[in-house]
Structure formats: C-alpha cells, structure tokens
Amino acid sequence: MARTPSFVRAPRRLPAPEPVVLTAPQRAVVHMAASLLLDYPDEDRLGTYLAATSAALAGPQAPPAAVATPIEEFVATARAWGARRLAEHYVETFDRRRRCCLYLTYYTVGDTRHRGAALLAFKQALAAAGYEMAADELPDYLPVVLELSARSGDEVADVLLSSHREGIEVLRAALVDAASPYAGLVEAVSATLPRIDEATAERVRALVAAGPPTETVGVTDTLPFPSLPVHNPLPTMPRPVTLQEAR
C-alpha cells in the first residue's frame, strides 16, 4: 500500500541545551533582555526595549555569542516585522497554544485548584527577595521571574527558575516547533541555567507529550516545587519594569 499523508505527529522533543558559562553581569543582561522582549510587544515601548537590548549586547557586559546571537536574531526579526505583526504573532502563540504559556505554575499545576497556592508561593518568594509586584501581572509570569533574577541576582530567582525548569523546556520546545522567533529568547535563557539531569529530562518528555496538568480529585497542601527559597542577595542590575523593592 502506498504511504498516505500523516495528519498528526507527536510534539517535538529537543535535546537538552548546553549550559553557557557566564559572569553574573552577563547573566543579568540575558535575563533582563528576555524579560523585556518576552512581554507583550506594546507599540509604545517595543522600540525602546529593542534599542536597550542592542546596547546591552554591545556593552562591556555583553554575553558570549552562544546566548547573544539568538537574542540579536529576535531583535532583527522584531524590527523587520514591526509592532503590529509581532503583537499578532504574540497573541497567536502565547494566548492560543497550550504548551506556549509564560506562566510557570501552569506547567506544574495547570488550571487546577492548586493554582492559587502556587501563585501565593511565588508572591512569598518575591517578598523573601525584598521585592513586590509593581504591575498588574501574576508573579509566576516568566518575564517577572527573569527581571527578578536580573535585578537582584538572588538565590530566590535561581530556585524559581530551576524548580520550574520543566515548564521552561516545554515552552522552548513548543516555540521551536511553532517556528516562532520567540524561541531564541527562551533558548538563550535555558542556556544560562544548570545542566538538566536525567530525571528532569524525563519530566520534560512527559510534559511535552501530555501537556500541563488538568484538574484532579482531592486537595493536597504539597506543591511540586519549593515555596520558600533561601534569601541570599547578590549584586543588582537596575532596570525596573514590573517589580519594585519592598519598602
């Protein structure tokens, strides 16, 4: 029998990224650039953010090409597309694709009854680092956590990113699968994080295949990630966007 066209396929599984050695300021540049550019591309701010990113990537704390190049490619695409086309792509990608979610707790607890407790854990983590939300946004929004990492260098941000690594990798795979220019930003972030062990890789494979959790029967007080990370402040990189220091 002749081979027939295939209408479905399994989601793409990407190999784990190779970590890139960075100084703390270089890592801050990558995380702040990704924070700015993974947010909705508002027409009034996009040009400023693209210019600031280009300047940082050419500055004295410029990260190595392995992580700078994907960000530069996104900047070039954003300028070529313009704010309107980029905004349309953003909505189509992040609002309508289940595996392209920028809210980290969605990958660990989904839209279930545990979401409230998970968001509270993020809010407590921000407070532990000495910050609070300054914008009308949820605390598990990936750009928020990346801004916290860039501005504070705090262990809290490291714990939030590492304990939600599965979600970041599912997002990365989904964006690559969708041929989205935003894939390069998440690729760059992923390369700044520690090497993925086999247990984490297996959880990523399961999430790629099944997608985020759905509602389950019963209630538990146990969350699938640490809720109160240790506070250990490091040098800051000032550029306020969504966070403010708690007074």
Would you mind describing this structure in some detail?
It is a single chain. The chain has 247 residues and is an all-alpha fold. The chain has one domain (24-241). The chain contains eleven helices and two strands. A two-stranded antiparallel ribbon has the order 1-2. Helix 2 (43-57) packs antiparallel against helix 3 (65-81), helix 3 (65-81) runs antiparallel to helix 10 (183-191) and helix 7 runs antiparallel to helix 8 (155-163). The longest helix has 17 residues, at 65-81. It is globular and about 40 Å long.
Question: How do the strands and helices of this protein lay out in sequence?
Answer:
Elements: H1 24-38, H2 43-57, H3 65-81, H4 83-95, H5 105-109, H6 115-128, E1 131-133, H7 142-152, H8 155-163, H9 165-177, H10 183-191, H11 198-210, E2 243-245
Antiparallel strand pairs: 1-2
Helix pairs in contact: 1-2, 1-7, 1-10, 2-3, 3-10, 7-8, 9-10, 9-11
Can you give keywords for this protein?
2% strand, mainly alpha, 247 residues
Which ranges are low-confidence, i.e. pLDDT below 50, for 5 or more consecutive residues?
216-240
Shape verdict: globular
> What is the strand arrangement across the widest sheet?
1-2
Listing every helix as H and every strand as E from the N terminus to the C terminus, the arrangement reads: HHHHHHEHHHHHE
Give the CA-CA distance, first to last residue. 72 Å
Indicate how many domains the architecture comprises. Answer: 1
Q: Averaged pLDDT, please?
A: 81
Mind telling me the C-alpha Rg? Answer: 18 Å
Helix share bin: 40-55%
Question: How much strand content do the residues show?
Answer: under 5%
What characterizes the major β-sheet?
A: 2 strands, antiparallel
What structural category do the secondary elements indicate? mainly alpha
Helix count from the secondary structure assignment? 11
Number of E-type strands: 2
